[in-house]
Write a structure and sequence with these properties.
Order of helices and strands: EEEEEEEEEEE
Strand content: over 45%
Shape: globular
Radius of gyration: 14 Å
Distance between the termini: 39 Å
Number of helices: 0
Number of strands: 11
Structural class: mainly beta
Largest sheet: 7 strands, mixed
Helix content: under 10%
Length: 128
């Protein structure tokens, strides 16, 4: 089992920036995991925000964050990041880090059911 711990959430004004971090620990190398950020706003279903392949060569973004958010990872530090810029009130949500192990370095997943390890979440609030 992989332990995921998110940090970096908080309160920010619209137009501002935040960087979320997700530190991973466990019996398998971080570099073997596809990673992703999901978010869940109050009263809404959890949705994919961005995903990154195990070596960081391929990324995916949901349309609403393209051009504003950047997902990245540092496999030497067992850490994934989400740089969020030009934040909007609609980005307000709990943000969750997710991981799933793969031996396919090109694999990329977008569905919750494809991930079997989850962090506890970090809250992001964007005020107008």
């Amino acid at each position: 089992q992989v332990l995921l711990v998110e940090t970096g959430g908080g309160l920010v004004q619209a137009g501002g920036s935040l960087r979320l971090s997700c530190v991973c620990s466990g019996p398998y190398a971080f570099s073997l995991h596809v990673m992703a950020w999901f978010r869940q706003a109050p009263g809404k279903e959890r949705e994919i925000v961005a995903a990154i392949s195990s070596r960081g060569l391929t990324t995916y973004y949901t349309d609403s964050v393209k051009g504003r958010f950047t997902i990245s990872r540092d496999n030497a530090k067992n850490t994934m990041y989400l740089q969020m810029s030009s934040l909007k009130p609609g980005d307000t949500a709990d943000y969750f880090c997710a991981a799933t192990r793969t031996y396919d370095s090109d694999a990329l997943y977008f569905n919750q059911r494809d991930f079997d390890n989850w962090g506890q979440g970090t809250q992001v609030t964007v005020s107008s």
